[in-house]
Amino acid sequence: LIVIAGHSGCGAVGAACANLEEGKISSITQKIKRSIEQVKHETGSADIGDPVTREKITKCNADNSLREVVTESIFLQQQLQSKAVGIMACYYNTSSGAVEFGQLQYH
After folding, report:
1. Contact yes or no for 58/10 (Cβ under 8 A)
2. pLDDT over threshold 70, residue 23
3. Using 50, 70 and 90 to split pLDDT, how confident is the model at 107?
4. Could you give the CA distance from residue 67 to residue 59 in angstroms, rounded to a whole number?
5. I need a surface site. Which of 25, 28, 53, 97 has the fewest CB within 10 A?
6. Pairing mode of beta strands 87-92, 99-101
């Protein structure tokens, strides 16, 4: 089982929301910006400082990362199709310890 996890209070999500692009973090924040735009579009909210919106961005980023990992690996695609492995995204709330798992995928 492969789990792509996002977590509350993620510094990379915070950096992307703050539009930080300095140094090595930019390789990560550029990918997260897609999730920011998706959440803005889906919710109609531009308040990326709101904790609920940040949580949605983090979950969206985990889902986007899952798709990217699968899309970029033919080997992983083959393993998923043969059901040798499964993959899912999750969100870990670091304050409560709760983990929300997404749908298990085999494709």
Report:
1. yes
2. yes
3. low
4. 13
5. 97
6. antiparallel
The residue type found at 4 is: I
Q: How many CB atoms lie within 10 A of CB 71?
A: 10
Token duo for residue 94? 């670091």
Half-sphere exposure of 33 (CA within 13 A, CB side): 11
How many other CB atoms sit within 10 Å of the CB of residue 64? 18
Determine contact, residues 68/61, Cβ cutoff 8 Å: no
Placement of tokens 């709101």 in the chain = 50
pLDDT in tens, 32-74: 999 999 999 998 877 888 899 999 999 999 999 999 999 999 9
Residues 6+ apart with CB under 8 A from 80: 70, 86, 87, 105, 106, 107
Q: Which long-range contacts (CB under 8 A, 24 or more apart) does 81-85 make?
A: 81/106, 81/107, 85/1, 85/2
Helix (H, G, I), strand (E, B) or coil at 100: strand
